[in-house]
TrEMBL record:
Molecular function GO terms recorded: ATP binding; glutaminase activity; NAD+ synthase (glutamine-hydrolyzing) activity; transferase activity
Alphabetic keyword roster: ATP-binding, Glutamine amidotransferase, Ligase, NAD, Nucleotide-binding, Transferase
Signal peptide: none
Name this polypeptide is given: NAD(+) synthase (glutamine-hydrolyzing)
EC numbers on record: 6.3.5.1
This protein's pathway: Cofactor biosynthesis; NAD(+) biosynthesis; NAD(+) from deamido-NAD(+) (L-Gln route): step 1/1
Presence of the UniProt keyword ATP-binding in the record: yes
PANTHER family: GLUTAMINE-DEPENDENT NAD(+) SYNTHETASE, NH 3 /GLUTAMINE-DEPENDENT NAD + SYNTHETASE
Organism: uncultured Leptolyngbya sp
Domain of life: Bacteria
Gene Ontology biological-process annotations: NAD+ biosynthetic process
Homology family: In the C-terminal section; belongs to the NAD synthetase family.
Gene3D superfamilies: Carbon-nitrogen hydrolase (3.60.110.10), HUPs (3.40.50.620)
One GO CC term, this protein: cytoplasm
Length: 380
């Protein structure tokens, strides 16, 4: 059996567009012989949806979109991240939604699974919207018994961290259920060096429990958050046998070893060559997605001749293309010829257009207008 990881760049709130991305990935997965497609956490609505979840019509439309997607999919099983209403909340209390994953197959929603550990630290605020799931998530496909976790569910190995952060251990519970494979659907934000930590944690858990683990992450920039992708698969010994691209959309195929109940070696994309290269990839992706997802096509950057504006201009050029970047120079009476020449040389190296707007007269007009109001006060 083959599985496919769809490392998608999703748009928060764009249910139709995200469903189309999932559909396109499913068609590619079928062409490559996959029987199961994995998509990221909350892939249908994008992560983090935040207060969109408070709008009942948004949740209703998400449910309808999920059902339509199930009917439209080609012949394979697909795991789709969605928000599922908590039908018991009005009777017994609790949050009105679950952070869920739906198993779509045969034109229908076959099963729905709920995230068990809800993070409330750093950038996360999931307890505001979601009720935690209470049961281990298990399903069967192609003779394999598969355990499902959602993002934080995987981050509670007391041996790796030195302590438990939650009373519940979803991975340990799945091992007790006798699963053959553990998969994780994530929306794990980027920070410098985090991928090394993720891989160390996943390798430790795979080796500790003698369980193959497949980790699926989303990619892309959503406002202040950047998701780096870098989905991976570890075999029972904890060795990385597959890795998707960093900071890029990807479709990764993973073959299962039926006899050994393990993962066969697959495509392992190289990690960024250095921390500087990793940070550069994150900055370029974040700027590109912020512009595109806000429907911006061009940017204007003030060029001072200094290192700060030079770096921003280089990132913008890489992200959006030189033809979409305009550098504006605004020399004042205090600007040196050297700073102007440095800014023009930078623009020439990057291939971006420039415009020079001297501001000496503008500064003089401000001084003339505001002079009486500030008369007798010290300069600066």
């Amino acid at each position: 059996m083959k599985l496919a990881i769809a490392q998608l760049n999703l748009v928060i709130g764009d249910l139709t567009g995200n469903a189309a991305q999932i559909m396109a990935a499913a068609q590619q997965a079928v062409e490559k012989g996959a029987q199961l497609l994995l998509t990221p956490e909350l892939s249908l609505c994008g992560y983090p949806p935040r207060d969109l979840l408070i709008n009942p019509s948004f949740v209703e439309t998400m449910t309808a979109t999920l059902q339509q997607l199930a009917r439209d999919l080609p012949p394979l099983a697909v795991l789709v991240g969605t928000a599922e209403p908590n039908r018991q909340s009005q009777l017994s209390g609790g949050k009105p939604l679950y952070n869920s994953v739906a198993l779509l197959a045969g034109g229908q929603v076959q099963q729905v699974f709920h995230k068990r550990l809800l993070p409330t630290y750093d950038v996360f605020d999931e307890n505001r919207y979601f009720e935690p799931g209470q049961q281990p998530n298990v399903f069967s496909l192609g003779g394999w018994r598969i355990g499902l976790t959602i993002c934080e569910d995987l981050w509670n190995d007391e041996q790796f961290w030195g302590q438990r952060n939650y009373a519940t251990d979803p991975v340990g519970d799945l091992v007790e259920q006798g699963v053959d494979l553990i998969i994780n659907l994530s929306a794990s934000p980027y920070r410098a060096g985090k991928q090394k930590l993720r891989e160390a944690m996943l390798q430790h858990s795979a080796n500790r429990y003698n369980q193959p683990i497949i980790y699926t992450n989303q990619v892309g920039g959503n406002d202040e958050l950047i998701f780096d992708g870098s989905s991976i698969a570890c075999n029972r010994q904890g060795a990385i046998v597959a890795r998707a691209q960093a900071f890029e959309r990807d479709l990764l195929i993973i073959a299962l070893d039926e006899a050994q109940r393990d993962l066969l070696p697959g495509s392992v994309a190289p990690a960024p060559k250095s921390e500087e290269a990793e940070i550069w990839g994150a900055l370029v992706l974040g700027l590109r997605d912020y512009a595109h997802k806000c429907n911006f096509t061009k940017v204007v950057i003030g060029l001072s001749g200094g290192v700060d504006s030079a770096l921003v201009a280089a990132i913008a050029t890489e992200a959006l293309g030189a033809q979409n970047v305009l550098g504006v120079l605004m020399p004042s009476p205090y600007s040196s010829d050297h700073s102007i020449q440095d800014a023009l040389a930078l623009a020439e190296n990057l291939g971006i257009a420039t415009q020079i707007l001297p501001i000496a007269e503008t500064m003089a007009a401000y001084e003339h207008t505001l002079g009486p109001a500030f008369a007798g006060t010290p300069a600066g």
